[in-house]
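USER:
Make up one protein:

ASSISTANT:
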Amino acid sequence: MTETFDVVVAGAGPVGLMLACELRLAGVDVLVVERLAEIDQTLKAGGINVPTVQSFYRRGLLPRLNERRAAHVASLPLLPGKAGEQPRRFGGHFAGMFLDGSLIDIDDPAFAELGPVDGSPFVPQQDVEEILGGRAAELGVEVRRQVELTGFTDDGDCVTIWLGDTVIRAGWLVGCDGGRSLVRKLAGFEFPGLDPVVTGYQAVAEMTGAEDLRLGWNTTDTGVYAYGPMPGRFLTIEVDGPPRDRTAPVTAAELEASLHKVSGVPVRITALRSATRFSDNTRQATDYRRGRVLLAGDAAHVHSPFGGQGLNLGIGDAMNLGWKLAAVVAGWAPAGLLDTYTAERHPIGEWVLEWTRAQVAVMRPDDRSRAMRKVMREMMDTRDGATAVFKKISGILHRYDLGGGHELVGAVAPDIELSDGTRLGEHCGDGRALLLDLTDDPGLRALAAPWSSRVRVVTAKPAQPRELSALLVRPDGFVAWAADTGTDGLGDALSRWFGGPDRAL
């Protein structure tokens, strides 16, 4: 028997689950398929950047994220620092060079009105997946595990998908199935980039002889290693060639050799709890859509894990794509809306790839790279330098080129505090666009009324006086229109992003 769905998402990692939640929030009938029986417990990403926290906040998931974060931190048996060392506030790293958070200028305008964001929370990727899995279940998303996509055809009107012996007919297929994406390969997406030159390992193990390892990120003449903050957790990076075999099981002897090579410390691993091997294979799909097949997350772009950008980049993809694909399924999407997915997200992905490639260049042990690393270190040890680097790695500078108009257009909406005690982000939970009327303008509300099923109008004065009179926020949190006075351009923005009106004026 053939089953039918509006959208099938391949992959139940954070990106696939976030996308499924966004689609279901908009009423889309979505199926998620995942070949694994349960969440992969291999050590993975742990840093959540500002845009990701903001996405959870706008959907009412921030309390769950903070709860997991607090529980994770409380459970860690942290390693003690060396005698006489003063603790430093971790602000991230660039190429293994520690960024001192105490140097960051928190009064920089870029940090204003970000919402309830506290740095970059350390939450294991598995916890993020569990949160999103729970939310998907609440919304009624069907997730099938131990189910592997084996093939599909796109006839232009629908996608026929084979899940073993089961046949699914769907309007759309989205590949969120990782860096080795079968969806990407079968659909024939171009995936150009650079071959890897790095071999990296990340592991949690029981060891002897580890007392001579330095805590935190350390650069040596033979590579980079990080140790801690919990006992037995380490990472090594060798910049002298890619892994001979990415798929072979990681052995204790292999890890001991790598750690000794880059740190000079002979350790012995007595028990291996988790281990993974990685490289800096750097590639990006030229387009994120081919017909009725789309890509998101690592399926669309792969790069080294330096800076923990991968998870966050994928969540951004899901937030951008979700409401647009839902609009197409519902039938109200304006012409070209789905094309803006690649147009907006591809440059962000390209920046991340460039940022990670630059870190590999700085990590190399040759004299020129050492000189470049020294210059970068000196810059990062200044207030301006630390602030500039943190603004980059935190994601707060991400914006889309949506054309001219107000300076806020294309940026993430400021989390404006309102006189009724609420904030802008608290009004975004239903997944619709938001038109915030800050001057009680009946003309503005009348203009937006025909889009009431897609655009929620909130009238409230700001808690503090400001020039801004109104702004239109897309479901993904980015500003589509704003004005200091009047309503010029609002009608065009509503039509551009949300199609024709529900009813005539």
Q: What stands out?
A: The first helix runs from residue 14 to 25. The mean pLDDT is 92. The two ends are 46 Å apart (CA to CA).
